[in-house]
Amino acid sequence: MADYRQMWTDLEMDIDKHDLLCEALPEAFGGVYLTQENRPQSMDFFDFVVSEIHGVRPAELIEHQKTGGKVFGTFCVYVPDEVIFAAGGIATGLCGGSQFWVSGGEKVLPPNTCPLIKASVGARLDKTCPFFRIADMYVGETTCDGKKKAWEILASEVPVHVIDIPQMKREKDIKAFQGEIMDFIKVVEDFTGNKVTPEALGQSIKLINNKRRALQRLYSTRKASPVPISGKDALLVTQIAFYDDPARCAEMTNNLSEELEERISRNEGVFPENALRILVTGTPLAIPNWKLHHIIETAGAAVVVEELCTGTRYFENLVDENAATIEEQVKALAERYMKTNCACFTPNPGRIDDIIRLANEYKVDGIIDTNLQFCNLYSTESYLVKQAMTAKNIPVLHIETDYSEQDYEQLRTRVEAFLEILRK
Ligand code: SF4
Ligand code: SF4
To answer: Per-residue confidence at 2, pLDDT binned at 50, 70, 90?
Structure first.
């Protein structure tokens, strides 16, 4: 990584502690990613983003702030980024996926909190992530209990706005969510000093839709056999999409897809044609959480699709671009976001339908349902996932894990045993 020490100092980061993170990342990334064979050339861009992860993009965000722009940190796929961009702001994902930050979160959170929340809080309190330092406002949501309480802790550090996400999807809930988006527009307007006009919102709806289209195109290539890209690489692209510039991300993802489409026309893949095809579902895999994909793919199977927030939930469904007034646009936003199926909703049959549909579309041999420790929502829903998949004769392996390496060998053994069963 180039030298960004002055920038990190200006952000009042804990430089010594941050150095430890910077030292560990190249080896972790190299061991998981750069050891793969026959990677698409277009992954160079995404590798570069990781190699400069705490440098290039943070520097861009700071430039934006120097011209009076605001940066909003978000933690969930239900937050409508479109509103932020329409007011001249920049939205950046803040979800923590590293064990490095967990101990910082554990200083203030109960031990039985999921690692995603612990890492997110730890990244802020330990002052070891520039993105958490740069964001002028955090945008939280009322999705799960752990997050709801975490916002109260983070609010003593930085302005936090919490969007009330409904827990059901009845007509009146979708209407209530429209009201929440309207309130959010007002908050963002006041914070940025910029009006959200129908023209600006229309443009930002197209901007974010284009990123979704690019990710949809990328995922479509994974339906081919042999699969032209590893699950690890596809996951990395989705993880980076949460915080990269949306237009650049769409462009780079389209470049990658073009290369993959050429590979498909040559019948070229990164796994043999008879490799097992796996769907991963469950709790999000925030960057740099690559553990499960690495275990599956080094055991010889290909992850071909993720029914995750760092997967299809992030980009399936577009916002209607024909809405002309703010009211119509907000309705279109609410309708699109309420099509996303997270376990925080009850009932949540849409997620089961999604898993079955994706399993068929991507011709998977089996499903790995992964749960971050202490996420009660997804771990409880795993019972229903298992029941539905068994009824459809789709094999499922349920695992519960965290960000540490402690269960690595145990997980590997379980995954290998599952793959052995699929091969029979
Ligand atoms: S799992 Fe649910 S709460 Fe967590 S990021 Fe995804 S949508 Fe949001
Ligand atoms: S993984 Fe579960 S517990 Fe953790 S933040 Fe997401 S919904 Fe909440």
So the answer is: confident
CA distance 117 to 28: 22
- Statement: the pTM of the whole predicted model exceeds 0.90: yes
Q: What integer pLDDT is reported at residue 95 of this predicted model?
A: 82
Tell me which of 121, 154, 378 to substitute to probe ligand 2's pocket, judged by most ligand atoms within 8 Å of the beta carbon: 378
- Contact indicator for 351, 384 with CB cutoff of 8 Å: no
Ligand positioned closest to the Cα atom of 370? 2
pLDDT digits (tens, 9 = 90+) for 341-380: 999 999 999 999 999 999 999 999 999 999 999 999 999 9
Helices and strands counted in the chain (H then E): 19, 8
The type of residue at 217 is R
Ligand 2 midpoint to CA 111 (Å): 14
**83 lies in which domain range?**
5-423
Number of domains in the chain: 1
pLDDT digits (tens, 9 = 90+) for 54-85: 999 999 999 999 999 999 999 999 999 999 99
